[in-house]
From TrEMBL:
One of its GO terms (biological process) is aspartyl-tRNA aminoacylation. Catalyzes the attachment of L-aspartate to tRNA(Asp) in a two-step reaction: L-aspartate is first activated by ATP to form Asp-AMP and then transferred to the acceptor end of tRNA(Asp). Residues 143-446 form the Aminoacyl-transfer RNA synthetases class-II family profile domain. It catalyses: tRNA(Asp) + L-aspartate + ATP = L-aspartyl-tRNA(Asp) + AMP + diphosphate. ATP binds at E369, G417, L418, A419, R420. The lineage of its organism: Bacteria, Bacillati, Actinomycetota, Actinomycetes, Micrococcales. This is Aspartate--tRNA ligase. It is an enzyme of class 6 (ligase). Keywords: Aminoacyl-tRNA synthetase, ATP-binding, Cytoplasm, Ligase, Nucleotide-binding, Protein biosynthesis. Belongs to the class-II aminoacyl-tRNA synthetase family. Type 2 subfamily. Residues 198-201 are annotated as: Aspartate. It comes from Ruicaihuangia caeni. CDD domains: Asp_Lys_Asn_RS_N, AsxRS_core.
């Protein structure tokens, strides 16, 4: 393999021979000199070549130089090349104050000259050609930010004795709701794609794992075309034993968000500011907490009535309550707590003093729900009653209910959509922008 140096590391190197590889962004083919802007995953670099337009029979080197000149003249945007040359620091070079004078140039892969997309192409068109779209530095940054976020969460979890689990995505039953369920043929039977690792992360509690986490895919057969829904998304899940209430889960959740956002600010804050015009704010703790009923009142006083009483908060309600929290507390996050039992799954524990509400919450970030968390009902009799009340068949849920028959500690956790967090943090308007390959009702390719 060629000893290639990432472009971002060149500035710190002394002048001298280097090898760089990447794709061609632009070619400026002037009579006497040729310039290439070369990109790799870490940045952009100016390459320069003194043009030799004709072979000089008295100069042995001129044939080679002429060949390179011709190659550059025919070089199409997007082609992948490897160049060995002389690095030179020169303040006059706008692009990073360095350039590489080409010694040898190998075209490793020619690109078809006309790119099928441009910077101003529609998001759908760009997704059709996602591999080209992802070459843009903004896109590259998104996935570096994602890497840092996941790494920071993992570091937190590992430092706090959590165990990483990988739960199956093929299931025999629904875990969230019968709606939004993908069915797949499973030999002579039917299987369902996991909507959440819910049941299996809970299973780690009677298994004696104490604290677990998973970052993995989740599937929802949701036919909507909103900016926040996908049919497949990456879910960040955690579940912990020995909690007293959902308050303990919220505290854990806050700490994880602070760890993740702090790491992003430190590593990418400046570049995010420059590319997305967004200042990353590390949130203060505790995040504001508002019971859902109160949040609806606050929103109503601001002039927006959430349709249908006793229902969930709708997207406009989330925006309004977030605006209120920002004005009142200067905070980008808010926990909406005490959701009605009627709109929560059977496995949420209900409030000991008021069966009408659950020990649960949603976390709203920049006006959009990013997560649901709760204390779970671990008492088998209560759990079975709640399942029946929701019209679920305890027979079908038998494997799950068994988890609670042989001893289980009180526990709770949350699930959070990775793409929503990234979209909101970077001020982007759709999870399509921050998902490596988006899956929606009308998108299974590429
Ligand atoms: P919930 O269904 O609220 O809760 O999902 C948790 C979080 O997952 C993300 N999410 C989605 N992201 C993109 N597209 C979708 N279609 C989609 N659906 C959900 C959201 C949401 O807040 N088992 C519970 C979690 C728990 O209690 O631990 C659950 O799945 O960010």
């Amino acid at each position: 393999m060629t000893e290639r140096i990432l472009i971002k590391h060149l500035a710190a190197r002394e002048d001298g021979p280097v090898t760089v590889s990447g794709w061609v962004d632009t070619v400026r083919d002037q009579k006497k000199v040729q310039f290439i802007v070369l990109h790799d995953e870490s940045g952009a670099l100016q390459l320069v070549n003194p043009a030799v337009r004709e072979v000089d029979p008295d100069d042995a080197a001129s044939a080679g130089r002429h060949e390179i000149t011709e190659t550059i003249s025919g070089l199409s945007q997007g082609s992948f090349i490897t160049v060995t040359g002389e690095l030179k620091h020169d303040e006059r070079v706008k692009l990073g104050g360095i350039e590489v004078k080409i010694g040898t140039l190998e075209v490793v892969s020619h690109a078809v000259p006309e790119s099928p997309i441009a910077d101003d192409s529609s998001i759908d068109k760009r997704l059709d050609w996602r591999f080209i779209d992802l070459r843009r530095p903004e896109q590259n940054l998104i996935f570096r930010v994602q890497t840092t976020f996941e790494h920071a969460l993992r570091t937190y979890w590992i430092e706090h004795d959590f165990i990483e689990i990988h739960t199956p995505k093929l299931m025999a039953s629904a875990s969230e709701s019968r709606a939004e369920l993908f069915e797949v043929g499973y030999f002579d039977d039917t299987a369902y794609l996991a909507q959440s690792p819910q049941f299996f992360k809970q299973m780690a509690q009677p298994a004696g794992f104490g604290k677990v986490f998973e970052i993995g895919p989740a599937f929802r057969a949701d036919p909507s075309f909103t900016s926040r829904h996908a049919t497949e998304f990456t879910s960040i899940d955690t579940e912990v034993s020995w909690i007293s209430s959902h308050e303990d889960v919220m505290r854990l959740h806050e700490e994880l968000m602070v760890a993740g956002i702090r790491a992003i600010k430190e590593k990418h804050g400046e570049e995010i500011e420059q590319r997305f015009g967004v200042t990353i704010e590390v949130p203060t703790t505790p995040f504001p907490r508002i019971p859902l009923a109160e949040a609806k009142q606050i929103v109503a006083e601001r002039g927006y009535v959430v349709p249908r009483h006793d229902d969930d908060m709708d997207p406009e309600g989330e925006r309004q309550i977030a605006a209120y929290v920002k004005e009142k507390y200067g905070h980008d996050f808010v926990f909406l707590t005490d959701y009605a039992s009627s709109i929560r799954p059977f496995y949420h524990m209900r409030n000991a003093d008021d069966q009408g509400i659950t020990n649960s919450y949603d976390l709203v970030y920049h006006g959009v729900e990013i997560s649901t968390g709760a204390q779970r009902e671990h008492r088998i009799d209560v759990l079975t009653t709640q399942a029946k009340e929701k019209g679920l068949d305890p027979e079908e849920l038998g494997f799950y209910l068994d988890f609670f028959r042989y001893g289980v500690p009180p526990h709770g956790g949350f699930g959070m959509g990775l793409a929503r967090v990234l979209m909101l943090m970077l001020g982007l308007n759709s999870i399509r922008e921050v998902t490596y390959l988006f899956r929606g009702p009308n998108r299974l390719l590429p």
